[in-house]
Write a structure and sequence with these properties.
The chain is an alpha/beta fold. It contains 6 helices and 9 strands; from the N terminus they run H-H-E-E-E-H-E-H-E-H-E-E-E-E-H. Strand 4 (about 170-175), helix 4 (about 180-190) and strand 5 (about 195) form a beta-alpha-beta unit. The longest helix has about 35 residues, at about 1-35.
Length: about 270
Amino acid sequence: MNIYRGWIVYLLLAVVNASVVIAYNESAVSDQAVQGADAIEVGVATNEEVPLMIQKQSSEYRQKRDALLEAEKDLIVQRENVAELRRQLPLSAAITTDYLFDEGPADLTISDPATYTKVTMSSLFEGDNNELIVIHMMFDPEADRGCPMCSLWVDGYNAIVPHMAKKVNLVVVAKAELSKLRGYAKERGWNNVRILSSYHNRFNRDYGVEADSGQMPGVSVFVRKDDSIHHFYTTEGSLGFTHHRGIDLFSPLWHLYDLLPSGRSGHWMPLGF
């Protein structure tokens, strides 16, 4: 008898729960109808490709958002095509100059010049990593501080270097004398990225980031192959007379600003300058 009573109670609870679910769904449908014809239900994840939908979007918004989505897809494809074209670049002839850079201890609190050493370009290829990214930072020997934009970029590189170490070597090179450069790096908290001074060599000028008018920003890639070093690629901040966004891709700042209705307009410089 107790077993029968248990089953009766179970069935009654099941009927009550089912009634609650039905009532909730009917209420939800009614609420959606009240919102009006322009209200769009939040999309449900399925195996089919569906556009992202947010409640209370107008039909005009949905139409323009769908058009934007297609443009965003095209941009991704274009970016991948550009990367493929870049990978197809041939290596330069072997570099005959093994540039000497000034470098100090990894601990930036050590400021004794007696601890500074000379490091060769070939030694920057650590372990089995045969690719090297060089960040050309604008820091003129006569300046007291580094370029604000370059500093912004290096702030970001310093954060991601530990994640990159297994695949590629990355160093920051600037023309400022090493003591000044390290003092500035300490102030910025650049404790992960290698900081090198090209004060005593022609590296900056040889790779197009130094002119009689001063220093310029840039990014270069070098490859070690068969015990030789080859230049692969360099891009500058300015890709043309009126095109000054050549390094935008390497910092998330501007891409996040591009998400805003106001875009990149207004005062955007990082704090501390």
